[in-house]
Amino acid sequence: xxxxxxxxxxxxxxxxxxxxxxxxxxxxxxxxxxxxxxxxxxxxxxxxxxxxxxxxxxxxxxxxxxxxxxxxxxxxxxxxxxxxxxxxxxxxxxxxxxxxxxxxxxxxxxxxxxxxxxxxxxxxxxxxxxxxxxxxxxxxxxxxxxxxxxxxxxxxxxxxxxxxxxxxxxxxxxxxxxxxxxxxxxxxxxxxxxxxxxxxxxxxxxxxxxxxxxxxxxxxxxxxxxxxxxxxxxxxxxxxxxxxxxxxxxxxxxxxxxxxxxxxxxxxxxxxxxxxxxxxxxxxxxxxxxxxxxxxxxxxxxxxxxxxxxxxxxxxxxxxxxxxxxxxxxxxxxxxxxxxxxxxxxxxxxxxxxxxxxxxxxxxxxxxxxxxxxxxxxxxxxxxxxxxxxxxxxxxxxxxxxxxxxxxxxxxxxxxxxxxxxxxxxxxxxxxxxxxx
Amino acid sequence: xxxxxxxxxxxxxxxxxxxxxxxxxxxxxxxxxxxxxxxxxxxxxxxxxxxxxxxxxxxxxxxxxxxxxxxxxxxxxxxxxxxxxxxxxxxxxxxxxxxxxxxxxxxxxxxxxxxxxxxxxxxxxxxxxxxxxxxxxxxxxxxxxxxxxxxxxxxxxxxxxxxxxxxxxxxxxxxxxxxxxxxxxxxxxxxxxxxxxxxxxxxxxxxxxxxxxxxxxxxxxxxxxxxxxxxxxxxxxxxxxxxxxxxxxxxxxxxxxxxxxxxxxxxxxxxxxxxxxxxxxxxxxxxxxxxxxxxxxxxxxxxxxxxxxxxxxxxxxxxxxxxxxxxxxxxxxxxxxxxxxxxxxxxxxxxxxxxxxxxxxxxxxxxxxxxxxxxxxxxxxxxxxxxxxxxxxxxxxxxxxxxxxxxxxxxxxxxxxxxxxxxxxxxxxxxxxxxxxxxxxxxxxxxxxxxxxxxxxxxxxxxxxxxxxxxxxxxxxxxxxxxxxxxxxxxxxxxxxxxxx
Lengths: 437, 501
What we know:
The complex is a heterodimer of chains A (437) and B (501). Chain A has two domains: 7-220, PmbA/TldD superfamily (PmbA/TldD fold); 229-435, no CATH class. Chain A has helices at residues 7-18, 82-93, 123-140, 206-220, 240-243, 245-250, 253-257, 321-327, 347-350, 402-406, and strands spanning 24-40, 43-63, 66-74, 146-163, 168-184, 190-198, 229-236, 281-284, 305-310, 313-314, 337-339, 357-363, 374-386, 389-393, 397-401, 410-411, 415-417, 421-424, 426-435. Chain A has ten helices and 19 strands. Chain A is globular and about 75 Å long. Helix content of chain A is 20%, strand content 37%. In chain A, a hairpin with a 2-residue loop joins strand 13 (374-386) and strand 14 (389-393). Chain A is α+β, with helices and mostly antiparallel strands. In chain A, the strands form three sheets. A six-stranded antiparallel sheet of chain A has the order 3-2-1-4-5-6. In chain A, strands 10-9-8-11-18-17 form a six-stranded mixed sheet, with no helix packed on it. Chain A has a five-stranded mixed beta barrel with strand order 7-12-13-15-19. With 501 residues, chain B is an alpha+beta fold. Chain B folds into two domains: 44-261, PmbA/TldD fold (2-Layer Sandwich), CATH 3.30.2290; 270-500, no CATH class. Chain B has eleven helices and 23 strands. In chain B, the strands form four sheets. In chain B, strands 1, 2, 3, 4, 5, 6, 7 and 8 form an eight-stranded mixed sheet that branches. In chain B, helix 3 (47-60) packs parallel to helix 4. The two termini of chain B are 19 Å apart. The chains are: A alpha+beta (437), B alpha+beta (501). At the A-B interface, strand 1, strand 2, strand 3, helix 2 and strand 5 of A face helix 1, helix 2, strand 1, strand 2 and strand 3 of B. Strand 2 of chain A pairs parallel with strand 4 of chain B, so a sheet runs across the interface.
């Protein structure tokens, strides 16, 4: 893929610029290529190449004192009907309306690193093959666990964005995604699955991933349902973005504008502190090779690192340009990667307890109620700590409330980078309810 | 059923409309322009089927199997809330073609986001150049010759009305939903109408379909003494604009759900006698056995169900079906993405595991006949063995009898999400609420949310009553962490025992 604009992109830009019905416009052109590899056990099942080009046009029209807005997608086959497509967008925009807001003017996009040459062009094929070879080698090195399947996606996207206020920028991004599914035999058959994504091939530590998945699969062959009770629960970093989803939902400017948020700017979160460390949370869109890092968001706002919550106090919302204008706050752009500072306690100390303690490596599907924060979810991989020993557990549930739990949170001193999360490798919460045997 | 990824779930929650009531739509003035005549209707599939056939014929000269799949989705989305309204193209619009060949041992695909003959020719050349034919270990039986085109049956064709008239429907619906209650802070009505198109060509088979999907929803959100609550009503079906209207009963249920949501209690954990409402029965059907009988999991040694083919796995009063041929259901299609014509598959018959769901890969590698379950998220993704409309067959008992039989138990309603565990045969799904029942009557206590966990054969074997009613609930299903497709799941009310927390 080259940096040159496509002819369709140029035709759209020209037509939008001339159209006097349109008060403002945005254009985003994406050119994507990908390689997909599928293994059954360790043998090739299928491979795929993908090649796509799409253009997303958003037009704004004045409608009395309101601003109508509509988006359309234009594909390569639409080259001969550009004007018809724009007419369609103008028509739809005229049927609706929001309170007016302004597109961002020309500004510098962030220079965040989100592109890896090893995943682009013809190099992607070589990189893909080397990752598959590394995966096969790592799997063969495991005893007591064997492969069920593997999927590998390597892709690149070149995006050009422009708007009627003079913004124009191009960014190239890459992504590698790997599914690993291993089986283990023991007291009972068990499986463990992982889905890992990174921007850069060298950040995908295949050996470590396979070793962890294999170890968990082996552990699950002898895992039992944990006992029931109200116990300290340490939750692994892998689950923290899901766990903190209600904080993200309530911290958005759109939720504040719609009155669906429980947060108030400058005030503490609805957390009753019971000995825990305060939560500090950044939306970080400029973390190098972060999955949610971006040079500019869909509105053309440059990626930023923004403190949303500091020591349990809601400092400012993450705000797209539209809702920032409505709330009269600075736009931050779309939510970026999750960043939480390191805590005070070594991980080994987090799992120490006078009584029993549960360490959850993975839940089956953690989706707390975004408004209330209530959750209840099955333990997919966990470890029960008691009397100086620990044993694997699976099944049973952990339930509680995210906001209540945050009042007791203790964050590990060690940190990890998981693609879209930079933060403590685990967090301990007191008194969550475990429903098991 | 992985309804949606967590990130998508989070990001979609933020969509909003802002502003106040509109002036007279500018659209009328804009429409008066000569350039805005109604767009010409392009016949479907038109020359595309011939273009695909030409490419496939070229590939078939070299490879033992070749096919082409065109997949597209586009539509119009309308939103109305207390701040304003928006009309736009529905999200996830895309179109493209996937060319596929089999070399005797593995599949190779080249997919392009275009329908131009040049792009298709280049993709075919890529396959011809890159792939060599191996000594054949497997054989793919050709599908019987068939040329056919399908479209959705509907009462009110969306194309017969202007978008202004459709927006007027949404406004009318908003007026019904916009409840003047001080606890209500946010009200939203949305109507999405999408066309999903498929063309499949292989050998002498050429199939085309246009499926019109209507998603209509209303949401109330608010606070009562600082405690958040919400109510939801929706219809997601194949059909026309007749779908874009909620019944009075549905609106009353939504208001009741909104009010009750402020007073729900945390669910105490334990094993209970339970009655599942149809959406919860559907979750059980989908998560307990549906994913575990997708036969690509057999190839990967991942499905415990494989050991139970022809053996009892459930109470003898339980039958489980996957049927993509149900008229109007969200999970329906006339043919799957690998060209197999839709028909019901009886997965469990009277408690015995009878038949898995296949895709082309698994039926080829395991040498079985094919069921119509090879499905893909889109032109740029691989097909897998997937469910469509999956349900427990109705029985003979009045559902009221099931509830009356609950001496000390729970009635679970509404679905939130679930996840499969085909190898361990565990199950987890979350229902919206559980009502406590004593002596066959509700006590007034409502718990939320409610997570059901357990061992699949145990839950299925514990089913003691199957209702005579039937309903399907729309959803989106993922495979692991990705590959989302439209489905439904459902059945009648059932009574069983379950571990709930």
